[in-house]
């Protein structure tokens, strides 16, 4: 058991190192560098950047050095907990991400809770009442939810929210609370803005989860142990919730690995459309501007979280499923 | 609750998703009748001291600070040489927050422009007349070697410290001339390659001294240039230009004034989290990032730009008053809210979340913007730009990868034919809603540099017959089965490449239409929709055949020539190798063989030593050659496409009915936002 955990830990470290190299290289791959992107940006708005200024900027950021030198400089700082400055934002990367991190976590966790809250009961219901009218209805809605890209849904909801209900467009705060320090009013304001993005983010995931839950549960419901439980006279809800549902939850545990990075990045496209101040749009922006330290740090963070998440889900699986535990010992 | 027709909803949605191109619906209604285009109007600066106010008022917040003893009385904060402004319409009143949208730290121009009056001179609302600003007057010596600025006596920085000629000398000696900050000098200070200098005459008089006649310097000083641009734009975003700097504040960050020199300065910088003293200096002088740096514009930053909201407040030492003696600005503060994308910014503008916004507003959304005027409580203004064309097709004169293509790109008749093959009316109606002016690349008729009658139309009308004749004449007579002309070397179809970037205008889509029009005279062009840093790299490497961009800024040819003539290697779409040759004094790149290009470069070089009248003639001469030769094809311009669609809250007063749209007008700063106010 302990050797297994140590093995996994070692592997995780190597993976994280590989991620750091690959993410750095990928960010460097597009032609040009931060200064080119910066000049293009300014020139498009009619501002002048002289050759001299471009040259001194390159020196300042060390962009005139080879890639491996830049990587080494970056990673040796990262190991000490210093992620470097964001070129575009002119602030330490940790501050830039930190500003948005916990708002992202709030949005994502509410989306996940909402997804589970809707998907699990419906999944169970449509498995138990297979081919009922409600099952068909949920299936239809579920498939529509899967098929419609959620950024489109976001646009449609936002537009009608604006036209019909005069809703605030995008963002997580009203104008009057944007600047205000934290207070009850501001928290309430956040609560008011939260349902819309949380719902949009939740919908696509919901459909998928309903289908998985339904399929898994249908498999389990046909097993002999269910018949045995019924034969022994257990109440119907207990038969279902206590045994087959527990077994059907197995696949959820194994996807926790992907939940962690989602919690931190949110959905990039939806956040962008809804103008949510989360980490997702920050990453996109950093990639476009070739802001290497910022983009590199976010990609690294997401990579680390995926690795950690997978590790955790391995542990959880071991804990909830005796068969997997047995497999390791054997 | 407003009811909306489903068609409009669908249209709005289509535009929001950026599928739709502007419909021609509005095109038919003529611009004059639409009431959207106003008359150019602007503030008046009162120079007659007899008309100056004798007593002064200030904002209630400042009066309170005076009462608490935290601020000197208003009359002591104002300079002896006042700037007295007569607003566009009326005397305003104090108060209110101007709400705007911005797109992030790269959008610092959004705020720099509001502080545009922090430069020695500033052009007026016509874009052609130079007004005093920090300097009350200026003079170029007869020999063109000495330019004198007479600063307002009694000017103060936003922290109350007097501003003087020493701040100019400090900038010149300790920032501009410091090789660690700026490795090389700038062209604005180096006529004919000979470095000039800044000399203090007395506390409020500064001389710029040159070895050779440099009459152009007066124009450079009045434009949005590295030398004349002022502190807000030229010292933010790691710039180190702008002719002056707050010496009393910045000295302590320079090694020269630090006991212990470079090492001590670096140690201090590291302690604050910067890599070295240069990085720290870049931060300290940047008014958008550092709330402590003293400024001269009407507003100063109180919450930096790298936040979700960028907040500015009035500068208590601003040096201008209205004719009733009220110290400006009227507005208490400016808040800019970060929008993660332009669609959201436009939607917010429609919802009335912004009080005055012209930046980032999309001309293509005009129908929806108009539709929402009442519920958003704003009015739409269309302001027309001064540059000749919003989509300019540069033919790379130094392209050499494919000799056959290179030959045609260098053929005058080939370029003229392609220009004649463009149906500019169709482009105008499709992408500019018919509100722009079709024609050549020439600057607006109101500007002195306009070459004269006939040059808007020269080689720039729609004439397929003549285009075909020209193409036949130069030997492109053979066609393939589909009717496309073939190469003269191998009989394959002649295929041109247009490199287009999706930036301020939908250039890839515009180019698709141009390519369709060229197909009708038998020329195939493939549009390459290119990501913009890639486009930048490719053009710098001389890999492009035709590049589309706009020619904004070229209306003042000497201040921003790069999109008209190949002089700046950063963006030399017309011929990167020629630009390198010109810029390096002949050491690098390729000398133009085309006598017309040589002539243009000669004229341009000579202009800096010419007096204003001759210089204007020279510019006209350059434009005539450019248009006759069609190195760059103009399509449609003088439009509101860039910063010209202005949404103004009904509550705001003193707003000109038309803004000057140009880089040197610092839109909207040239309209003096310090005189705007809330009526209720």
Approximate shape of chain A: globular
- CATH architecture descriptor text of the domain at 392-637 in chain B: Roll
Largest interface: A-B, 63 and 75 residues
* Largest sheet: spatial strand order of chain B: 19-18-20-16-21
Cα Rg of chain A: 24 Å
List the domain count of chain A as a whole number.
Answer: 2
CATH homologous superfamily descriptor of the largest domain in chain A: MetI-like
Helix content of chain A: over 70%
Q: Helical proportion of chain B?
A: 25-40%
CATH superfamily of the domain at 392-637 in chain B: Dipeptide-binding Protein, Domain 3
In percent terms, what proportion of residues of chain A is strand? under 5%
Q: Tell me the β content of chain B.
A: 15-25%
Q: What's the oligomerization state?
A: heterodimer
**Which structural category fits the helices and strands of chain A?**
mainly alpha
How many runs of DSSP E, i.e. beta strands of chain A? 2
Tally of separate helices of chain A: 19
Using the coordinates shown, work out and report the CATH topology of the domain at 392-637 in chain B: Dipeptide-binding Protein, domain 3
Could you name the ranges of chain A where pLDDT drops below 50 across 5 or more consecutive residues?
A: none
